[in-house]
Amino acid sequence: MATLQWSEALVLDAPVMDRTHEEFVLLLADVEQAPDEQLLACWSGLIDHTDAHFSREDQWMQATGFSVANCHSVQHKVVLHAMRDGLAAGQRGDLALVRELARQLGAWFVHHAQTMDAGLALHLRSVGFDMETGEVRRPHALPVEPMKGCGSAACSPAAEEAVATPA
Question: What is the rounded CA–CA span in Å between residue 70 and residue 64?
Answer without folding.
Answer: 12
